[in-house]
Each structure stands twice: as structure tokens, then as C-alpha cells.
Design a protein that fits this description.
Length: 478
């Protein structure tokens, strides 16, 4: 195997150049570990191609020796999906150098970006053409288009625009045998056979390597208004959502919920963050309404709507941002959750979804069960209440869980509680983060057998040698 490895590394260097084949442990370490620091990989090398043709040649070389391929973008995922496992020899295919925006068609409202394009840069490019790409999440400055496609990412704009799946018009994918599928069609209507791009969206690199995507653009929003409101409970938040939809329709750009413990954690572990109101309520909603018409007075509309909501006992307090800087400070509370929780210590975060009508019951169930069954776990919540996606976060006491094994044992218990509750209420164990390595066993437990069989059939058809990101989503075949 050593001779084969040496020959393979030599072939890699021929394709991308020696400087783009990283094998030194010091150089590869940032790519071998997931963002949360829970998973450590042992890939033979980190490869950094700069074009689709280079990706294709690298994949062909790996296929010739049955070496596994782990596609990687910004490595911001939260389930270990971009870290090489120990199932077989593997390489990491980091696509960050493929960062060109190939085309912007403002008339067609479409943008073609390579997989390594950072989300913030795509949004900026769209804005320069008086358009917007609406996907937005906390890692906007580091996450990349290929990873967002491969995990079917969500974020704060799903209520209005949908997940990444709804924002992708076409894809370019390198298949497991090295062939390139050019599906970069900027069409909103195409019924000519199967919609093949959908197979790769959310597949976490297990069926092929996404190298480029055609993305939907929308008219740039010219006016917006942001507020943070206090509530007495989750049911009140659900009622407020329905009320806001009745009042302003699809102008709701975002509608996010945070429990008081989560806001307090962000303020404690964030950098210079401030709350616009006293934290004297158990729940808070961060909302934004927006429109492309500059004639619409968004702030006045939001103030008037919230006054009515207050009269109907839907909110107990509200702070409406009067300028962009104040609005940004409100959203910093939401977008710094992952970073703050990471600094807080060992946290167990879940990514479940249930029907919006079931959210109050779901949150009550998981909170009670975790507090009863996991000693020393402080529970907080945050998420996209408008689409039923709530992140249940358990912070484990360092005095009780002092070793990694103790933490992992408690994490498994928390995950089981949350996943059981979501399935009980007709929900999903993963709403937007994906399965990765973290939830493979849970998927087998909670996904119906016929679903798993169809997924395995697709995997075997596309990747019969199991070279593409093995051990992610589905357990590796032996």
C-alpha cells in the first residue's frame, strides 16, 4: 500500500501541483478536524484543486486505487460530515480555491458560482447588480456554496425563500468515476425527465462532488425593519407568527426565537454584544420585515403592527431598531449563537424540526426530559420558529462531566431524548445541519426501512465502490 500511496500522491501533484497536495501533519490539521473539535480525521492528504477538470482527474486517480474522497468547503459543518473517517484510506478534497463567480444574469435572476465561493461574496456580487441571494446564516463569512448545497443549508430566511434546495436551479457535479455532469441550467421550468440535481442537494458529498451551482436571485430589498420582542411562552410566539403573517404577508424576512438562557449565554460569551431590552421574559423573538419598494415605510408598519400585537397580549415588550446599526446589533445576538455556545464549554446542540403547531409541546417535552434524565444539563433553545426548526442546546456542567467519555455519554442521552420527541410529534431528526458522522445511527433508528432501502439503492447505483464520503448519512458497507 505504501508504494501505491506514493504513486497516488505523485499523480495528485501532477494534476494540481506539489504545493496543492498537503501531507505534512501541521499543514493538514486545520482540515482534519471538524469545526466543533469533536471529530479528528486521518486523511492521507488534503488536495486543493482549482478547477472542475482538476477535480475530475483527482477523482479518477482515487477511483483507480479505491481511495475514498471527502469533499470539503469551509469546514463549518456541525455534524462531522467533512472529516475523513477510519473506514478506508481517504483524501480530503478541499474546494476553497474554486471561488469564481462564473456568471450573473440580472434579467434571469440567476448567478452561477463555483463550490468554493464564500456565501458573503455571493451575496455581495448579487447586491452589486441590485439583486439579492437570500440565504443567510451565522457562518456567512466562511461557509461555501458547495457545502451549503451538499447539506441543503437553511438559515434565517427559510420562512420566505426556502432552504438551499429551493434556491438551486442547476448543478455541476463530478461523479464517483470522474465523469462531469453539467447540469448548470438556469431554468425555472424543466420537466424533461428526472430532476437529477435534487439527488445531490443534501447528499453531503456521498453521491458526487458539487463543483458549481446556478443560484436563484431575487430583487434587492430596499427597506426593512427589525425588532426584538419579549414573550411569555412558545405558544405566544406561534400566535405572533400567525398574526404577523396576516398583517404583512410574505414581507416577513425572518422570525427567530431564543430562550432567555440562550440570549444570556450569547451576551456572556460573545464579544461586546448588547441586548436592546431587559431580559425579564422567558422567550424572545427576533424579526425582520422587508420589501423591495422604497416607498414602503417598514419601520412605521412594524411599530403599528407590534402595537396591535401588544394590545392583543401577544407580546410583553418590544424594541424596534431605528437604524441599520441597531438592527445589526439585534441580529448579532442570533448569528453569534454557535460561536458563543462553543466558548461556553461542552454543548450538545440538536437540529430537529416539527410542525409549527407542535413546537410548544415539543419544547416542553424535551426540556422536561433532559432536566429529569441528564443531571447538571442546562437547556436553552434557539431556532427558526417560522419553519418549525428548533435547536435544542444542552450545556453540560464541567463539575459533573469532567472527561470526554462522560460528555459523549451525556450527549448521546440528550440526542436520544430530542430525536425521540421530534419523531413522536411527526418531525425530523435533522432540519438543516445534515446527518454527517454524528447521526448515522440515529438515522437508522428513526428513518423508515423503505426510506433507508431507497437511499442505499441510490448510493450503490451512483457509487458502487463506496468512495464518496463513506460513513456519512449511511453506515459504510463492509
Amino acid at each position: 500500500m505504501m508504494l501505491k500511496t506514493a504513486a497516488l500522491l505523485e499523480r495528485f501533484a501532477e494534476v494540481v501541483g506539489p504545493a496543492r497536495v498537503l501531507t505534512d501533519p501541521g499543514a493538514t490539521q486545520p482540515y482534519q478536524q471538524d469545526w466543533r473539535g469533536r471529530y479528528q480525521g486521518a486523511a492521507l492528504a488534503v488536495l486543493m484543486p482549482g478547477s472542475t477538470s482538476e477535480v475530475a482527474e483527482l477523482v479518477k486517480a482515487c477511483a483507480s486505487l479505491e481511495v475514498a474522497i471527502v469533499p470539503q468547503g469551509g469546514n463549518t459543518g456541525l455534524t462531522g460530515g467533512a472529516v475523513a473517517g477510519a473506514e478506508r484510506p481517504a483524501v480530503i478534497l478541499n474546494l476553497s480555491r474554486m471561488n469564481r463567480i462564473r456568471d450573473i444574469d440580472a434579467t434571469n435572476n440567476s448567478l452561477t458560482a463555483e463550490a468554493g465561493c464564500i456565501l458573503a461574496h455571493v451575496r455581495e456580487a448579487a447586491d452589486e447588480r441590485q439583486r439579492q441571494f437570500p440565504l443567510l446564516l451565522g457562518s456567512v463569512g466562511s461557509c461555501e456554496i458547495g457545502g451549503l448545497v451538499s447539506t441543503n443549508a437553511g438559515g434565517t430566511g427559510v420562512l420566505r425563500y426556502g432552504n438551499m434546495r429551493e434556491l438551486v436551479m442547476g448543478l455541476e457535479v463530478v461523479l464517483p468515476d470522474g465523469r462531469v455532469w453539467d447540469g448548470l441550467r438556469a431554468l425555472r421550468k424543466d420537466n424533461a425527465g428526472y430532476d437529477l440535481k435534487q439527488l445531490f442537494i443534501g447528499a453531503e458529498g456521498t453521491l458526487g462532488v458539487v463543483t458549481a451551482a446556478v443560484l436563484k436571485l431575487f430583487p434587492r430589498l430596499n427597506v426593512s425593519a427589525t425588532a426584538m420582542v419579549a414573550l411569555t411562552g412558545v405558544q405566544q410566539a406561534v400566535d405572533l407568527l400567525r398574526f404577523m403573517q396576516e398583517q404583512v404577508g410574505n414581507r416577513i424576512e425572518a422570525f427567530e426565537i431564543m430562550s432567555r438562557p440562550q440570549v444570556e449565554m450569547v451576551l456572556k460569551h460573545g464579544h461586546g454584544l448588547q441586548s436592546p431590552m431587559e431580559l425579564d421574559s422567558p422567550w424572545f423573538v427576533l424579526m425582520e420585515i422587508a420589501d423591495s419598494s422604497p416607498q414602503w415605510d417598514a419601520i412605521a408598519e412594524l411599530e403599528k403592527t407590534l402595537e396591535t400585537a401588544f394590545e392583543r397580549d401577544l407580546v410583553t415588550n418590544a424594541a424596534v431598531a431605528t437604524d441599520v446599526a441597531k438592527a445589526n446589533r439585534i441580529w448579532e445576538l442570533r448569528h453569534n449563537i454557535s460561536e458563543a455556545n462553543k466558548r461556553a464549554g461542552f454543548t450538545v446542540s440538536n437540529d430537529t424540526s416539527v410542525p409549527v403547531s407542535k413546537l410548544p409541546r415539543f419544547i416542553d417535552l424535551v426540556t422536561d426530559r433532559i432536566e429529569q434524565q441528564v443531571a447538571g444539563a442546562a437547556v436553552c433553545h434557539a431556532g427558526h420558529i417560522g419553519d418549525g426548526n428548533i435547536h435544542v442546546i444542552a450545556v453540560l456542567s464541567r463539575s459533573i462531566y469532567g472527561t470526554p467519555d462522560q460528555c459523549e455519554e451525556a450527549a448521546a442521552k440528550v440526542n436520544l431524548i430530542v430525536h425521540e420527541a421530534s419523531v413522536e410529534l411527526g418531525g425530523s431528526i435533522s432540519a438543516e445541519h445534515g446527518i454527517g458522522r454524528m447521526h448515522v445511527e440515529r438515522l437508522e433508528r428513526f428513518k423508515p426501512g423503505i426510506d433507508l432501502n431507497m437511499m442505499r439503492t441510490l448510493k450503490a447505483a451512483f457509487d458502487p465502490m463506496n468512495l464518496m464520503n463513506p460513513g456519512k448519512i449511511l453506515r459504510s458497507r463492509t
